[in-house]
Batch of 4 targets.
Target 1
Amino acid sequence: MSQPTISPDMTINDLLQWAVLQRERLRKDANAERASEPALVLAQAAKLTEEVGELQAEILGHAGYQRKSKNKVFDADSMGAELADVTICVAILAVAHNIDLGKALARKMVKVESRYSEPESR
């Protein structure tokens, strides 16, 4: 597999190619017991939960609901980093389950759009 494009203009396929490489790195770094398929998937799902929690903390910080003792700057860069962490976890999970994330997103977007193209019932 060739090295995926890593740039602000990368495609979903570039992200998924990178996720394949990252998943293999995680497998190599894990001990034999944790490198099994179910263990890797469960660990990645737990990691996604962790990252969503960190994103929620960012959202609360941006809204002014985090306590001052956190001593953290909540800005577009920190929010972007947390969104990226969540996206990376999702991509790794998609790869683990052989899900074409581009197709899944397109199907979901069509479904969402159809909600707005239907006449409103009165």
Target 2
Amino acid sequence: MKRTQYICSLVLLAVTGCSTHYAPQPGPRISTTVRSGGIVYVRNGESFPHGFAGEGLVDAVASDADAKAAAETYHRRNVGGFVATAVGAACLTGGVILLASEVARDDGNSNGTTGSDAVMAGAMLCAVGGLIAGPLVMASGQTYQFDAVNIYNDHVDRRTQPAWPGPGAWPWGYPTTPLPGIAPDVPRGGALPSAPASPASASGSLSPPAPAPPGP
């Protein structure tokens, strides 16, 4: 009894100790941490536990269509791989039980292939197929987990900043003052507006008239 308690305490300590020691800063990007032995996604201070088959990742990236598609693929393959593995394990268990019962009933006089032999062979094939295909399907979805996080983080600026040019680029609308070095628009079919005449050109000259020459 004491040995069992000791082992359980060690397992509990190992599970609770499997946590990251650094808390990521709150922000719009997704950070991946480990808490109590499980993966947790953190975004804007909100935590999304990974869940049994990755449904937490789908919730964490739900606001980005591309990242959500990758997360859903990851989730579906986790579910499919788990189901295939469970079916394979059930077939293996049934095949072993059937084999044990056949051995117990065998009196050494049975000849040829019986129906039980066919069922046993099918169960073993099911077990081998499920136990091999299940982990492979789950492994193929692992890359979509990383894709979902990377796509979401790469699209943060696109989701949080307005497109340029656009009405939201300037708090008060588009700037009305022309930038330096840019000529004003030329009216269609006409020339540039001429500058107003200066007083000098209107009066002919700004200098006083020359004095008349002295008389004889």
Target 3
Amino acid sequence: MNVEPRVGAEGASGWGRGGALLPRYALYGDSSGSTVDFIHVERLRDRSEVFDWSIDAHTHAGLHQVVLLLSGDVRAELDVDSHVLIAPAVIAIPAGVVHAFEFEPGSSGFILAVPEGQLEGSPIEVWLRSRLFAAVVTLSLRDDDTLVDRLESLATEILREQETVDIGRVATIEWLTWTVLVLLARESDRFHETRGGVVGSDLFGDFQSQLEDHFAEHWRVGRYAKALHISESSLNRVCRAVAGATAFQLITRRLEIEARRRLTYSTVPIHRIARDLGFADPSYFARFFRSQSGVSPREFRARHQPAVTSPRPSSSGT
């Protein structure tokens, strides 16, 4: 997967100022550095076909993304994990997650971008975040044709409203989007239920949200438990039920994922990555990373850092 260097573009790529190999787009391929602070929907082929159905590794600036795949299949690289999904399926991607796609040519569906702030202030904000945007969610919809039809209809209506100038357009787009998110969150709930992890999944979502905010501060398990108003043993019980791992293992895993991101997609010196991730001593960071990955940060970067080339739009691209 090739990426376009965007060194020194504050807020447009990577992490902070300079050293970024990983593009951070408002919408994929947009090199303006602008942000999107409104809901946006487009047909999957509108952008994917321009790039020969191959979307290189990137992140989005303050945007959650929902991919509704109605036909075809996709190989999705989501942070350090790979997924192959066959339509109909959904991928919900939290803001900041590194992702790349290889779609089967001719695939159809919709891409929905939702600003992080769009969820704020709702009485079901925590529930939606925990089900869809606390971590990557992939869902197969092959057993529910009715849900697929509803989602396709709603996405089509959002697109139609987006292209009009009618009174109430913005409010209608928001209502339709909320409906899409609620339907998907319900489906995510059913998925957890079939996996036996529904008990405590609310708390697990809250824990994941806290983890996103504080992993670089190296909070201990007890501090997360205190913030959630539960005991350490209760937090560990919830984490095992939902994720099959202890809270400490999930905290460590989140820190490792962020280290892998920055070693792969930035040219920032390793000692600065260590500092930014809360390690006062670079040698301690090196020991931590080796204990998790089996290699030193320097060795990992040498093996995984991508070639510095530009995205590959087809002749019809813009």
Target 4
Amino acid sequence: MESALPSRLMAIAFLGDRHHRGDHVANAPRRDHHHAGGRLAIVTVPWLPYPTQPAAAPAFFRLGGGVERIAPGQVVLVTPFSSKVSTDAMYWQATANYRFRMPEGDAFTPGPYLGPHPSIMQSILDDLDAGQSRDGDS
């Protein structure tokens, strides 16, 4: 799990989901649907190709880019903050071979929100990244 990337884990999750759905359909009681005198088959087909987006880490996080100046295991605050909106920081951490730790990350949690609620630190950083000042904050 040290070198797991979110995109790779989702590919496995999609496969597991399709396997589960296929199992469910295969073991479901047979129901024949009649359509114009013939039988209509219901087939579940995965959406292919899966949507993808190229990922690139800033030069600083790549080998020889300066990340070596950070002592292994140090905590680094990376922005944009890693959340359900952007997982770039987690990718950059993986690109740097997990040289540093972050006080952030993303996880799916049960419930209507599907992720951890934003912390105060995340809200402040998101506002700063969007060019918004926070009156009263120093």
